Structures are given as structure tokens and as C-alpha cells.
Amino acid sequence: MEDWEADFGRTYVIGKDPLKLKLKNDIEQAWQEGKEWFHLQTHLTRAECYSYAVGLAQKYNWEFVGEIAGHLIGIFPHERLNPNDFDLYMHPENHNNMFAPDKDGNKRDWILEIHFVDREKKIGGFFEQLLS
Fold this sequence. Notes:
four-stranded antiparallel sheet
């Protein structure tokens, strides 16, 4: 179907490398923490959500490397992005309220993305899904 996208991502580890398994588990736990934190909020800017994701990486002793920490869900929202237009994204320069309704008064739904890396060890991982 050309009119729909799925936005769901996981990190998998092949083998038993303890650091890679820790990364995978940390990313999943951080995503769950992010979801719980998000649902406790009543007003939250997209920049604040991005900052929280960066803080999660620091808490777990990783580096957050995503340009964004998530995005609005919809019909191909990525295609509407213009350079330096971060309105649809959890980005440090986007100070719009995540809970504001769309132009028709509808609730908006968001994808949370967690991107952790260890540059020295040259490993990284990713976890994303709908914040519902």
C-alpha cells in the first residue's frame, strides 16, 4: 500500500557479546522509561522530549546520536520535511507543545526513537515505536 508507512524499529544482537546485549537491553528499557515519562506530562515541548531522550542515553552511559528523538505519525510525514523545518519532529529547536491538537482539533500521535552508540567500540542501537 503506497499511502501508509510502518514506523517500528528494534535492535537485535547475533551472538553473546555482553556489551552488545547490554546496549540492546538499555535501549529497550530507556524507551519504556521514555514512554512512562511522556504519559505523565500534560504540557511538553518537542525540544523537552528530545532533551529527555539525550538524558536517558547519559543515564545508561551511552551517547544519543539521533538528530531527532521521534516524530509525528501520519501518512508519510517524512516527505513533508523542508530544510530546517522541524515542526513534525522531537528536535532541540522545536518548542511546540506535543499535546496540541492538529489543525482539525484531533489528538496527535507520536513515535519515540531511541538512538544509543558507543563511538569508541563502534556499536550502536535503535528502538522506536508508537507512544500509545
